[in-house]
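wait is this the right file?? whatever heres the structure
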């Protein structure tokens, strides 16, 4: 058995890693001997499954399903079937078997690989799929659509028993209408051969019909529609507790209707088509009984909706697959959609299903509840530390930095720590208006909006007023002063678009200022001036943007002595201040450092986490705007 388990694991990994065969983890595999069925459990991916992860089930106990009397109503029946399956697991409680376990059981062959490949579903989801199947795969069994769960097991068993009675042997290919294919064989090589045969045969048929096999391309979204519709949709589709993500996949047509159970689970049966307004969505919800997961603004933009970027991307994968299957079905008379009774069964069943409950449990309950948070200058220093704290508290973080490589690696670090798609990166020069506009368009394309701008990117050039070059002056001013204006300008437009008919959740701008914005700084006029100036901007923007439900505050950190700005051995401020003679009598970098630490009542420099906590306060509180909050260990006190 050990060798067989290794074979089935290898087969599973082979197909699981190939998106032509498996999307969003659909499908399952098994191997059996006389007594035991070893099957891929729910919650384990085909692509990575190991031999020891296959769940052992006692075949005799699975068979009890076919002799037990089950309740007549669908949910009672499925619950009873689930209990029979759970009782067949050895040892009891070792894992969760798929609802398709009894189908694997009734197939005579020792290896079974069940997949939902788009190439196959182009035929199973086609009006003339059955006739095409009879012609292309005369040796195969075709089964008309039936509800998944134990109904499917009964139907497959009956059909296989009949086929065997007629020909002495079960067919090795079982095509399921609007679902996928079961392939059975007594060796792993034969499974591979059979799948090659299926793929080659179908590819030839598509070629003959002049149908391309790839995912049909989408166009570029209309930028104005994107910037107005996506933020509005976030509000219309979100709730006071949970912000949603509206992810733009381009422009083009949504799925035409419900194709397979997988598509319904991820993308719902129907997409919303129309303008992104509250009345249109309300009418859709009233008709369908759920909020759309796919929104098509005809000719302008196509969106997917999720509780997080990861969810929205999963919907996008299902949508792409549906669009591909639909295009392929043109080879066999066009797409055949599930009937109302059939898709409603899946919709109701899905409501009770495990995976939906799991995905709903993430993100929303955290302190920052999926707030889309853009952190400029997040590749290093304070910005990186702030990004880490925000991500740890449930924000979706966009690292926006001129240093594209640093931003990408910071985002990767956050995803490794907090989960796939919890952070992304974007290259930006905040002093360049086009670059800032493009950055917010890119963020809106990914997430649908922005809830928090942490305007952190800033630079410092120290120097005497008598010596400082105009070039250095402009450099500091363009980034620290003008750059803040540009970021707020474009962030505020997106945030304001999240207020629909006067309703929406509050957004935040938090600028990372400095204690040098509260008190002058010797031989550091360009910097201090830019920081004082931006407090004026914060106060002014706060007064204006309050009507768009945007709070605007600054936090004013003391010196981050451990960060690169101060401690970089070549360009750090300790070295610069030593060289410019800013600290009288200082002979070494250590002298300069001690001089500065001694100025702080709390006797230490400011840390990124101190700044992050102040930012969290700005976001969580609901009764303050236009403030500049010191984070200085007592060094600067307001009066
Ligand atoms: N370090 C301190 O002691 C200190 C103290 C008080 C306030 N601050 C403020 O905190 C903020 C962050 O400072 P830090 O010390 O962490 O800086 P840092 O130099 O360590 O990092 C700044 C980041 O901003 C990026 N950046 C610079 N110019 C940019 C531009 N034009 N567009 C996009 N990204 C740009 C850089 O690539 C870098 O990743 C600044 O606004 C600074 O004024 C720093
Ligand atoms: Zn299936």
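ok assuming it is, sequence goes like this
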């Amino acid at each position: 058995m050990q060798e067989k388990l290794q074979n089935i694991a290898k087969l599973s990994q082979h197909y699981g890693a190939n998106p032509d065969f498996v999307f969003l983890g659909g499908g399952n595999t098994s191997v059996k001997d006389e007594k035991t069925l070893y099957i891929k459990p729910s919650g384990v991916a085909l692509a990575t499954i190991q031999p020891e992860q296959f769940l052992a089930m006692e075949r005799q106990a699975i068979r009890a399903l076919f002799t037990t009397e089950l309740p007549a109503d669908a949910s009672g029946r499925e619950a009873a079937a689930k209990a029979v399956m759970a009782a067949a697991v050895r040892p009891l409680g070792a894992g969760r078997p798929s609802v398709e376990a009894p189908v694997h059981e009734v197939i005579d062959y020792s290896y079974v690989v069940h997949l939902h490949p788009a190439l196959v579903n182009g035929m199973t989801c086609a009006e003339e799929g059955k006739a095409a199947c009879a012609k292309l795969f005369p040796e195969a069994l075709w089964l008309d659509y039936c509800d998944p769960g134990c109904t499917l097991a009964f139907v497959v068993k009956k059909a296989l028993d009949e086929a065997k009675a007629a020909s002495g042997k079960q067919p090795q290919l079982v095509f399921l209408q609007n679902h996928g294919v079961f392939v059975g064989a007594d060796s792993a090589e034969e499974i591979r051969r059979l799948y090659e045969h299926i793929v080659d045969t179908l590819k030839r048929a598509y070629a003959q019909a002049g149908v391309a096999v790839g995912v049909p391309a989408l166009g570029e979204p209309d930028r104005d529609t994107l910037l107005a519709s996506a933020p509005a949709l976030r509000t219309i589709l979100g709730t006071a507790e949970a912000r949603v993500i509206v992810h733009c996949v381009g422009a083009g047509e949504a799925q035409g209707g419900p194709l397979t159970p997988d598509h319904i689970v991820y993308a719902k049966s129907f997409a919303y088509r129309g303008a992104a307004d509250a009345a249109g969505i309300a009418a859709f919800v009233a008709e369908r009984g759920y909020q759309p997961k796919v929104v098509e603004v005809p000719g302008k933009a196509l969106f997917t909706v999720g509780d997080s970027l990861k969810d929205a991307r999963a919907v996008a994968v299902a949508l792409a697959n549906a669009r591909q299957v639909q295009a392929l079905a043109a080879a066999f008379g066009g797409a055949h959609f599930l009937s109302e009774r059939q898709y409603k069964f899946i919709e109701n069943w899905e409501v009770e299903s495990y995976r939906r409950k799991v995905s709903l449990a993430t993100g929303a309950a955290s302190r920052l509840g999926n707030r889309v948070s853009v952190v400029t200058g997040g590749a290093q220093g304070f910005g990186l530390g702030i990004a880490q704290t925000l991500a740890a508290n449930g924000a979706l973080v966009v690292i926006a930095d001129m240093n594209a490589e640093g931003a990408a690696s910071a985002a990767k670090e956050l995803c490794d720590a907090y989960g796939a798609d919890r952070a992304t990166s974007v290259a930006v020069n905040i002093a360049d208006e086009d670059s800032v506009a493009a950055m917010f368009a890119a963020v809106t394309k990914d997430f649908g909006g922005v809830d928090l701008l942490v305007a952190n990117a800033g630079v410092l050039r120290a120097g005497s007023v008598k010596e400082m070059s105009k070039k250095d002056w402009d450099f500091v001013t363009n980034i620290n002063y003008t750059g803040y204006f540009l970021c707020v300008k474009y962030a505020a437009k997106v945030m304001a678009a999240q207020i629909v008919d006067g309703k929406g959740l509050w957004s935040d701008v938090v600028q990372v200022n400095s204690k040098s914005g509260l008190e002058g700084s010797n031989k550091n006029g360009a910097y201090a001036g830019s920081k004082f100036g931006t407090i004026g901007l914060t106060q002014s923007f706060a007064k204006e943007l309050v009507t768009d439900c945007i709070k605007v505050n600054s936090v004013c950190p003391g010196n981050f002595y451990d960060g690169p700005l101060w401690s970089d051995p070549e360009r750090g401020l300790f070295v610069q201040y030593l060289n410019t003679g800013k600290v009288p009598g200082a002979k070494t970098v250590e002298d300069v450092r001690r001089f500065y630490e001694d100025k702080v009542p709390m006797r230490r420099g400011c840390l990124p986490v101190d700044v992050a906590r102040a930012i969290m306060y700005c976001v969580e509180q609901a009764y303050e705007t236009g403030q500049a909050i010191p984070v200085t260990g007592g060094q600067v006190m307001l009066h």
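Residues 354-363 have pLDDT under 50 and may be disordered. so i think its the right one actually
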